[in-house]
Amino acid sequence: MSAKMTLGQTAEIPGPKKAFLIPKPDVAAAMIKRAKRALLVVGSEASNIGTKDGDLVGYATRLSKIRNVTVAATGHLIGEFRKRKAEGIHTTPLMNLGDRLRDPEWGGLDGAGPYDLVLFAGFPYYLEWLVLSGLKNFAPKLRTISLDRVYQPNANWSFGSMAEEEWKEVLDKMITILEEGD
Amino acid sequence: MSKRDLRLKINELSSALGTFKGLEIQVGRIFEEDWEEPLGPTPFPSVGTLRSWDLKLLNRYKPFYMPFCDLCCLCTFGKCDLTGDKRGACGITMAGQQSRIVLLAACIGASTHAAHARHMLNHLIEEYGRDAPLEVALNTNVEAPHIRLVCGFRPKTLRDLEDALDYVETQLVQLVAATHTGQEGDNLDFESKVFHAGMLDHVAMEVADIEQIATLGLPKGEPDTPLADLGFGSIDTSKPVIMCIGHNVLPSVDIIDYLMDHDLFGEVEVGGLCCTAHDMSRYDKRAKVIGPISWQLRFIRSGIPDLIVVDEQCLRTDVMIEAKKIGVPVIATSEKSCLGLPDRTGDDPDKIVEDLVEGRVPGVLILDPRKVGEVSVKTVMAVAPRRAGFKTLTREAVSEMAKKCRSCMECVRACPNNLPIMEAVQAAAQGDFEPLAALYDLCVGCARCESACPVDFPIITFINKAAEKEILNEKYLMRVGRGAIQDVEIREVGRAIVFGEIPGVVALVGCANYPAGGADVARIAEEFLKRRFIVLVSGCSAMNIAMTRDEDGLNLYEKYPGIFDAGGLVNVGSCVSNAHITGATIKIANIFAKRPLRANYEEIADYVYNRVGAVGVAWGAMSQKAASIAAGCWRLGIPVVVGPHGAKYRRMLLGRKEREEDWMVYDARSGEKVYVGPAPEHLFYAAETVEEALVMIAKLAMRPNDTSKGRAVKLSHYIDLYQKYYGGMPDDLHLYVRREADVPFTMRDQIMKALEEAGWVEGKIASPDPTLVDRLVRRRL
């Protein structure tokens, strides 16, 4: 492996408005903590993405226990959560969700009101890129964060592209901070 | 009938010459008047004629835009940043700009089919005359449902098709004009124009396919067309090999004719790629189908072809460079794709052959298909012996080259599917070719990895070499495209489809830009075949489903019949044959339900939308043609599901199932507005995974008109698939169960429990005689 690791798809060039880099996990944790209602959207690749203690499905399950965080699985990923007996996880097609998130009147997956922060992780790069583009342009009041290990320019905030091990550390630290503060 | 014609009818005229009664003067082209069916309300609809129908759909299925680019760079005011609520120098919004780009894509797609149809029509008229009859399908009166529906006339000869194409071309100019700076500004009006482009596209495709069926002797709707060989392994490499790429079959037909006329068919292999291959195999099943579009580069790189003949559409524009690498000449045959080659149409064929064989020119442009036939055969027979012994890279050479990998990951970043190319190359450097071979089935063949590689690895060639054994075994059978669905078949199954007893019609169409290989298309097809849906296929999808075998070594074409009936697998043919799929839905409305067809678009679309459980699936949709084909489905009310790459079309048409007010229809029996539930939920939808697509396809097959028996059948498939892949009960069952009789018997307890938890009330969802069109209400109570 090269020391220089550039990730993300080559031609996915961002527009004039680009995501701010999240400098360290504490900042991401603080943003999630401050949210009234945060939604973590986990994509179909989550079960193939390794983390420090398993995979992204496991991390999403941990996050679902944080007080102000709701977790939604897209694609058919909910099957994986159900196999693992994870409770309280919602399921929604990604397109349905993107469409509703731009609607400030939408009552959320549980009907308890709109979300003010949406986090994304576990998607094919281009697919997350596109949905975040839709939200950047048509959901101006919604804040979005990409937790993937590749910079997503269309989010409001994104981790920078990192080596796999570094990303695992960062993600674990972010979740640990949230768990400790909950 | 043509809107260009002047028709003057005067009951009584007194003049200096005398008194005339019943005087009728017509100027211009006169269409036959022996069609008893009265002319409907919208013959030759212009851009705005069906706008109100479009807006009915677009208000239910609102566009969700996912901009691919935040800028507009189409005029010199720009670039303009349109992010968020910004406007461009012309005043356009982001939503307007996105829909404008969608319209441009749809116009490109429709123009491509129209130009293809026109090119063939001009040639076929030269060959067969304007009065050549249109015999399109056996046991069929409705020979051209799109032309009848849109234009309002019955085409009987090639001449009549000119009128249909004149109309399409005129309208396309209007649509492209609407995209000019400072024209249309409203995104929904742009979207309505997208629908118009789609409708025109289906007329153009219909023209293209019926003209070639009628004149070239392609199958006329027979369900049991022959099986043709498909795959690399089907090519006899001991013979000279001509590789034909593209979509326009005319040059290939003349190659085959020349071979037959000179008793050479057994001595030369003719293989096709992409839709040309379909139409070649429809013309003569001995022509080999090499594979879908993704196979283009890998087949050239295999070194097997001795001559490349390109016609039009979906060609690799770097074919000259690739041909040079393996030392074969190229013959271009279309003005739309001249490839920088000299036009030798007027030259002596033997002189052209000599220049090609001696390598004096890398290729030639020949616009006369007959001459293409002669030059191709003579050239390949002379070139092949000289190429004998041509070798591609050896494994050792690949391994040696792979050691120079810089680990920059540019190949992975360039890959549309982020395939682990770098790791595979590095494994090959260590002598392990398995990881490279594993990429073979997943690679879409775009070669962006090669372009990105700083040390210029020919990665497609690497993969070819690693998967050599698999490639040589690539020998399958594909049922040849049959063309139209016969009227008699529509009569047989129309009722079962409309009442929902056949759970749905799934059409797997389109290109090969798959997220995880073509096997997924076969998986989708088989899932619905087993469930007794009617499955139709065309284009690259029809080829890909041939490439998966079961444990007995059989593929789907060998297991399922080609009938248009429950459990039938119907290969209609090439891209332009897609018109027969939508045409079948139109014929259901006309033949089974006896709805007037002639120039009666809105009523027929309303019927199809509310009653015919058809779903289009373009799992690997790539092109602008796929966009316009989908748009033609949308205007007819047929939902389309695409794979995740389809999100790059940058907008979806999505329903909001929870909003009851969005799902109201008129009951045509009473005029009352009633709630029918979100069926179908979406009009254009990108699924993230194949499992998600399977569930959504089953759901989108539901229609307000389903009988209880039909709805129960459809619900049982939806629930079963949901349970299989999601592991629970769907959370929206209460939106689809209208009354207890809709509940599938085998799952009754589970479903009733779920309904109770959701607060379901019997009878809240109506089962009317549904229509979205006020004027179609028959009686008002």
Average pLDDT score of chain B: 95
Number of domains of chain A: 1
Assigned CATH superfamily of chain A = TPP-binding domain
Give the end-to-end Cα distance of chain A, rounded to a whole number of Å. 39 Å
Output the number of helix runs of chain B: 28
Strand order of the largest sheet of chain B: 3-19-22-18-17-14-15-16
Q: How would a crystallographer describe the biggest sheet of chain A?
A: 7 strands, parallel
CATH architecture of the domain at 493-576 and 612-776 in chain B: 3-Layer(aba) Sandwich
Tally of separate helices of chain A: 6
Largest interface: A-B, 45 and 53 residues
Q: Main sheet of chain A: which strands, in order across?
A: 1-9-8-7-2-5-6
Helix/strand structural class of chain B: alpha/beta
Beta fraction of chain A: 15-25%
CATH class bucket of chain A: Alpha Beta
Q: What's the CATH architecture name of chain A?
A: 3-Layer(aba) Sandwich
Q: Can you count the beta strands of chain B?
A: 23
Task: Explain what you see.
The complex is a heterodimer of chains A (182) and B (781). Chain A is an alpha/beta fold. Chain A has one domain (21-181): Rossmann fold. Chain A has six helices and nine strands. In chain A, the strands form two sheets. A seven-stranded parallel β-sheet of chain A has the order 1-9-8-7-2-5-6, with helices on both faces. Chain A has a two-stranded antiparallel ribbon with strand order 3-4. In chain A, α1 packs parallel to α6. Among the domains of chain B are: 228-387, Rossmann fold (3-Layer(aba) Sandwich), CATH 3.40.50; 398-457, no CATH class; 493-576 and 612-776, Rossmann fold. Chain B has 28 helices and 23 strands. Chain B has an eight-stranded mixed β-sheet with strand order 3-19-22-18-17-14-15-16, sandwiched between helices. Chain B has a six-stranded parallel β-sheet with strand order 9-8-7-10-11-12, sandwiched between helices. Classes of the chains: A alpha/beta (182), B alpha/beta (781). The interface between A and B is large, with 45 and 53 residues.
